[in-house]
Structures are given as C-alpha cells and as structure tokens.
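Fold this sequence, please.
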Amino acid sequence: MNGCGIRVSSAWSDREDAVRKRLRSYRALVAQHRACEELCDSLFPSVTSRVQEVASHGSAENPVEARTLDILDMQARMRLSLAEMMDRITSISDMIRNLPPDEYTILLRRYMLGENMETVSEAMSLSVRHCWTKHGKAIRTLAKDHSDLQ
C-alpha cells in the first residue's frame, strides 16, 4: 500500500507485504510454541515416570515395550515440531538483526513486543511520523534483502 491507502501492484510492494506478514506472525508463533511446549511437558513430564505409568496399564494385547516405544516416538515427534517452530521464530528475529539500531528497535518494539507506534515513539524520543518513516525504510530494506519472501 502506498501512503494514500491505495494498493500498488508491484513485486516490491508484494515483498514488503510478505515482510510485514512474517513480522506480524512472530508473537503468534511464540504463543503457539509456549502452548505446545507446556502441552509436551505435561504429556511427557519425564520418561521414567511415564514408563512406570505405562507399565501399570500394560496388557497382553499391548505389551509394555510397544506402548513405551509409542510414547517415546510421540515425544520425539513433539520435540522435533517444537524445534521447527523455534527455528521459524529465530529466523524472524534474525531477519531484523542487521538493521541500523533505530530501525531494529522500531521493528522489535512494534512486532515482537506488540507496541503501538505512539508508545514506540515515546520510548525512543522520536516523533510518530519519524518512527513511521524509519519503519518504512526498514521494511523496504528487508524486502530487498529477503527476496525469497512471497
């Protein structure tokens, strides 16, 4: 979108939109990771306590060994999924790491911390307009540097 709210159709604006979308997804990914991690920790508090629980519920049709292996497999798949989520979260924070300090701070506070631009501008002792200008410059830089986003 340009400053007048009119959508500009170009590869540049599409990449800028993709950058904004990726930055906006950060907090949702962090929340999702926390929830999944808590679920994983509650389902698999420790292997030894779960093995004891499985042993007490074993039966002739479903041997303890098979159930234990199923639990360990589920735990491994959940841990792998958590690691993949963390990789996505890290890639988003790495994306802004090399920006100039003011631009980095604006994007960090705006997208990672969820602050509105008025709060960001007060914290940085800049005008809101100046923050938006630096924000736009940072987004354009990221769109240029991360042409793989679409």
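The mean pLDDT is 84. The two ends are 16 Å apart (CA to CA).
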